[in-house]
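Give me structure tokens for this 399-residue protein.
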Amino acid sequence: MRLGLVAPDDLPVPPIRGGAVETTVAALAEQWAGRHRVTLFSLADPALPAREERPGLIHIRLDGIGYAESCRAALASGGWDAVVIFNRPEMLPGLAGLPAALSLHTRRHEWLPWGQARRCLEAARAIVTVSQHLRGRLLRRHPETAGKTFTVHSGVDPHRFHPPVSEAEMAHRHLFRRRHGLDERPVILYAGRFSPAKGPDRLLRAVRQVPGVQLLLCGGAWLPRRRSVRFTRRVRRMAARLGRRAVLTGFIPPEEMPPFFRAADVLACPSRPTDALARVVYEGMASALPVVAFARGAAGEVITHGETGLLVRGTAGLAQALALLSRHPARAAAMGAAGRKLVLERYRWEDAAERWEQVLTGAGGRSSRPDHCGSVVPARDRPAGGSRPSPRSRGARWR
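Here you go.
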């Protein structure tokens, strides 16, 4: 197939300046370049060339001013078997006549006026969400899209994100922790931008209730926007109250993140229910870390409570889960191992690319037997589903 991929206009690809969507675009482009002809359009950056070519992949970087119009003009040449617009539904009406699919990663359609959002979604031949939770939100507002909306969960490279196994890796882990001011007490990792939706403030409040753990915060403000900068300052003030128990690294480029996962004992993902499904969940599972997340939202689609992590309610439940895992390292390690096994079975980038191809080639319909949430996961690979704690259970227990 000849594929056109259009990345968002916030950050460059590859994700040298971060970005979960950009990470996904780069990974899928790499997967597809081996067997299709891929042209990738993304934002220009001084550190990257305006055009790159190699077998199977042409990468064109465009200026941010007039980005959407430049992409539309480039795509107008035609000859595409499929075009994928990543998280920019507002670009779709200008692509009339093209076989365009929308990859939806956030609630961006909710930020548009309802009528405009409907026109944008009507222009997509297929819509793929990164979680069933996000698909449900979409269908509540736009039920007319049900027949063409599917879920393809994200992926991860388990060769990059893996636990320390050899003596050399364990020694490096020890030195890495010391270098960042961490001792032998359990380390809770937070990886992501500092925004209310991601919940680092809730995590800091929880950690204050668990005196025996350390917190490693990898992230910073989401672009230089006033609200984001104010929230980041608030997070830093809260972390300062923990003294040496909290270590803030600032922004870490994605390619440098694996050692931080290997240095941790638990991954905390305190995203609010509005978050679609944080990619760090997959990275934590691939790194054999038990994942603690809130039960409401999308995390339960890939985390099985008590088996690959703990799903909790509220800040008190988050604190209780962190305390439990810090007191029971063997059980935490078993959860981490189960999470990595699940990644190797279902959540590699190869798996995500294959399921995306089912949509792009028309196999995302009846022939793929989508489940009740519209997933295009083949029946033989379809997960039994992440389990959630009973509504009556406010704490963090494992079975």
